[in-house]
Amino acid sequence: RCSRASSAGPDAPDRGRALLPVPRGPERSARRHPVEEGLEAAVTEFFSEAERLGTRVLLPVDLVVEDPVRQTVSTVPVDTVADGLLARDVGPATAREFAEAISGSKTVFWNGPLGLAEDPRFAEGTRSVLASLAQAPGVHVAAGGDSARIARDLGVYGQFSFISTGGGAALEFVEGESLPGLAVLPDAN
């Protein structure tokens, strides 16, 4: 059972792009986009199911954005992002909210950075949340090569109960999908 779920970052849209104010890719504006056509029912079902289960869904409340024309970086509330700005990281208010949710969690499944963490200007959200995760008790699982690299770079790799460098496969496993590499194992003997 999941009591809280948070979602942000450049790869989060692969699994829930319609739920997030952070679009994928540097060419996309950070402005909140309408629900992607064809996903309206899935989005409605997701939030209905979360409400039914008592799961609190956390989404970014502020973003670190880059203006590629002016070559500036600023933090703005998620609902006030101007056209042309690129979402690069979660802002400090979002990082605090995510860190608070982590501190009270028994199990945390983390899949990837919260922003463009390979650029130091956009790594603070990930650093902050990861530092709080390292201090929290409980089971911590990380999925994805970026997750493993960032945990190693920040010196908290050993704080995780398990790290999988196969982020997509780990998500499919958690979703209950059959994994071809594992499906054949029972037949090996």
From TrEMBL:
Keywords: ATP-binding, Kinase, Nucleotide-binding, Transferase. InterPro entries: Phosphoglycerate_kinase, Phosphoglycerate_kinase_N, Phosphoglycerate_kinase_sf. GO terms for cellular component: cytosol. It holds the Pfam family PGK. Its EC number is 2.7.2.3. Residues 1-34 are annotated as: Disordered. It catalyses: (2R)-3-phosphoglycerate + ATP = (2R)-3-phospho-glyceroyl phosphate + ADP. Gene3D superfamilies: Phosphoglycerate kinase, N-terminal domain. One of its GO terms (molecular function) is ATP binding. It is an enzyme of class 2 (transferase). One of its GO terms (biological process) is glycolytic process. Residues 25-34 have a biased composition (Basic and acidic residues). PANTHER family: PHOSPHOGLYCERATE KINASE (PTHR11406), PHOSPHOGLYCERATE KINASE 1, CHLOROPLASTIC-RELATED (PTHR11406:SF23). This is phosphoglycerate kinase.
